[in-house]
Every structure is written in C-alpha cells, then in structure tokens.
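Thought: the user wants the 3D structure for the chain below. I'll pass the sequence to the structure tool as-is, report back what it returns, then summarize two notable features.
Action: structure_tool
Action Input:
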Amino acid sequence: MRIVGGTKRVARIVALSSMVAYGHVGLRAMVPALERLGHDVVALPTVVLSSHAAYPHVAGTHVDPATLDEMATALDANGWLSSVDMVITGYLPTEAHVAVATGLVQRVRKLSPAMTYICDPVLGDDPKGLYLPLETANALRDELLPLADIATPNAFELAWLTTQPASSIETAISAARTLRPSLILATSIPAADHHLATLLVGPTSAHATSSPQRAKAPSGTGDLLTALLAGHLASRKTPPEALAHASAWLEQCFDASTDSSDLNLAPLYASPPSPLALLTA
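Observation:
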C-alpha cells in the first residue's frame, strides 16, 4: 500500500460503483470529488439507474459482469491500467459483480503492486439492514474485503462484517481492529451530545472527527466521503490529514443539502474549507 506524505501529485484512480442519471450517489458523487482534487478517474458502472432507490420511480439495469470484464480487458490492452495508483469499489449488486471487482483488483495489483485498494462495503444501513442479497454480502466479506488496504464501512456495515457492536467510539474501534484491512474509516458512529463520529482506525492509533447528528441525511454521503478520503490520500496527505480535510468538505456539502434527499456538491467548486479538528480516539 502506498500512502505517503509529500508533494501533491496527480493519481490515476479506478472507481467501480453505481451510476445514476439524477442525483449524486455512487460514481456521480465520487468522480466529481476525485477530479476536483486533481486526479484522473477511470469510472466503471456496476448499475445504471435513473436515480437512487429512495425515489418512488426508479428505472435502470445492472451492467452485465461480462461487459465489465471486457471493459477492463480493453482498458488494460490500451495500457491504462499499468499506471493505476488506486482502486475504489462501491456498490456491487450481485455475487458476479463481486467477482468482477475481485478480478479487477488482482489484475491492477499485478500490474502496479504498490497501488492502494479502498473497499467501500456497500451492504446496508440502519434501520433497514442489509439491502444486498445475503450471498452477495457474504462474497464481499469473504472474497473482496480481504484484498483491501482500506475499508470504509458505516456503523451497521462494521457491526455486520465483524459480528461485534459498533454503537460507540470504543466498540467501533475494537470492531475495526478485527478486520483485515490495515486502515478502517468507520462512519456514523454514535458519540456524545447527539454527535456522530467518523473514525480512522489503524493498528495502534485512532483519530476522529465529530459532527452534529442530523434529522435527515442525503443519500451519497458515504460515497462522497470515501472519494474525498481517497483523493486526499492520493494527493499524499497522511491518513489523519486526509480525514480532517475530507470531513470538512463533507460538512460543507451537508450544510448545502439541507432538507434534500440528494447531496449538493456545489461546495466542491468553492475554496477548500479549513480541515476539521481531529480528536485522538
């Protein structure tokens, strides 16, 4: 895994997740954030939908896993996978898509052994629970997650993946350290005074940012935060620095999205905000 401090650079990042026509979830949240931070993004859609599933009318389809494999092969044949610095995976609707993601990570790592793989294990949330078939969730946990350098689960996903509670900062840290990835970004962790913590947990240290719990959160916040963290890491910020900067930009997008079910990404195109204060967890 290559995460080092130093001079900002342009990275090539492969992102595999959902694509929507309306709103900012999946790739429609990730790609603008990564490009705003100056990186080159190769975007592969696992599904193509009219919007996220919370709307009353949704149309679209899965992208055939065989087609995704063919696209990866063409990208490789054109020489565009040999210089990849990072792979990010998000929404994977079926076991076959998990297999595609696994093969893609292994292909890129063979070509570029120092690349970083970030797995956003999009499995479910409270109070709905899993919104993937159990077989798909199990495949993601057992086959894909062990390949990751970094994972970015929410509180529900962290608890499901580890069969441990993640209902407080202390229990979330304990649960995160049982996962194989060496760095865990755990989101939506309950904290004191009606706040939610975002935890960055390593083997021997943990840092956190904290924000007020909101009555309504727009869809796509996990996708955006994962991309912002990835983009700052790819720009050679240290993991704690990346957390502080990513959390600050997410808060600005939150504030701009008041009473909306979709993220407002306009703050990405304004001046970067000051990083949020880090707490040692």
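Final Answer: Structure generated. The chain has one domain: 12-280. The chain is about 35% helix and 20% strand.
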